[in-house]
Amino acid sequence: MLAVAFPAAAFATNCYVLATGPGQECLVVDPGIGVEDTLREVLAEHRLRPAAVLLTHGHLDHVYSVTPVCGGDTAAYIHTDDRYRLTDPIASLAPGTLAMMEQQFGQRATWREPETVVEVTDRQTLTLAGLEVEVLHAPGHTEGSVMFGLAVVPEGLPADEGLDRTMVSGDVLFAGSIGRTDLPGGDHAAMQRSLRDVVLPLPDSTLVLTGHGPATTMRRERGTNPYLQGLTA
């Protein structure tokens, strides 16, 4: 699998481009704020064509550029419980945060809902761009937060890591931390259940591509992440 990651221009949200190889269709995961230029460069460099946009959840910093990327037959995929957020994710921003963002970019924030949206559900398997992607519903950060699992890993990983699968975790799991639950739609109890029932059962051989910050592995997080300590799968 070819995997390219780069941060958005705001909130350091990771955008991922996944494909079976150069010159193929690809998946774009979580196109955040100000990613259009870098994304065009990545697509041109590897001769990739977006087949779908996958959204781990509906927060603005993960979906802001979804409509420029989508178009024609390119649909946005989001869990049913977060579908409502694509109506106007700007409305959920605190006025101060919105003002700060607009000042940083020197223009008013606007939003246009993508034309084609596909709602996904827990344990659904998607076959897109030659890749099989399993949807794991893991609410807590938002009602419809999901992780996307693939039974392959990016090329070039150290063989001694023993990794054989990839999980794009969004804001469910970070390296050494987890997503916050104090925003609208967040639920601490739901997050604890997701960590116990969805995250902990993942094999140690799982590469975790996080929504913010560096990639990690389940082996590392199981042993060091304080938010997983004391939980029993």
UniProtKB/TrEMBL annotation:
Pfam families: Lactamase_B. Its cofactor is Zn(2+). Keywords: Hydrolase, Metal-binding, Zinc. Residues 12-212 form the Metallo-beta-lactamase domain. It comes from Ornithinibacter aureus. InterPro entries: MBL_Glyoxalase_II (IPR051453), Metallo-B-lactamas (IPR001279), RibonucZ/Hydroxyglut_hydro (IPR036866). SUPFAM superfamilies: Metallo-hydrolase/oxidoreductase (SSF56281). This is MBL fold metallo-hydrolase.
